[in-house]
Amino acid sequence: MHNTDVSTRTAQCDCGQLRFTVRGEPVHVHACTCTQCQRSSGSVMSYSAWFPEASVNIEGKYTIHHHCGPENPDRFRGFCPECGTGRFFRSGDTFPNTVAITAGTFAEPGFPLPDFILYWASRPQWLGSPEKVKLYQEDDE
């Protein structure tokens, strides 16, 4: 007999118009302190969970921004057109067949710790090193 208990998480934008339901655990969770992520998140870093595309259900309206240009249609950021929050994205070939959802949209205090943080060298210098998280000065090992 197989255990069919699969965790389900829900997330939403600030106004609740855009909602996400995901089944199962993330493929991985990571944060990034590159300047592009700082600008797009409006914070010192982005913090996102990557789920298999088949396990993600998105309900509501959203706007797409092709941050790598129209020549890369499989790389985009999506967000609620009403409140501007509820960010999710796809990274094309980097993590194929996955959808990333910003961890804060889950509003879950026990959400998994990032597996790693990219572009650590670009962080604000006052930000100290977290324990138990691998730090990459750029985006590669």
Description:
This protein is mainly β. It contains one helix and eleven strands; from the N terminus they run βββαββββββββ. The protein has one helix at residues 35-41; strands at residues 8-12, 19-23, 28-32, 46-52, 56-59, 63-65, 75-79, 88-91, 98-102, 116-118, 134-135. The chain has an eight-stranded mixed sheet. The longest helix has 7 residues, at 35-41. The protein is globular, with a radius of gyration of 15 Å.
Order of helices and strands: EEEHEEEEEEEE
Number of discrete helical segments: 1
Reported for the largest beta sheet, the result is: 8 strands, mixed
Unreliable residue runs: none
**Global morphology:** globular
What key phrases describe this protein's structure?
141 residues, 1 helix, globular, mainly beta, three-stranded antiparallel sheet, 5% helix, 11 strands, eight-stranded mixed sheet, single chain
Question: Secondary structure elements and their pairing?
Answer:
Elements: E1 8-12, E2 19-23, E3 28-32, H1 35-41, E4 46-52, E5 56-59, E6 63-65, E7 75-79, E8 88-91, E9 98-102, E10 116-118, E11 134-135
Parallel strand pairs: 3-10, 10-11
Antiparallel strand pairs: 1-2, 2-5, 3-4, 4-9, 6-7, 7-8, 8-9
Summarize the structure.
The protein has 141 residues and is mainly beta. It contains one helix and eleven strands, in the order βββαββββββββ.
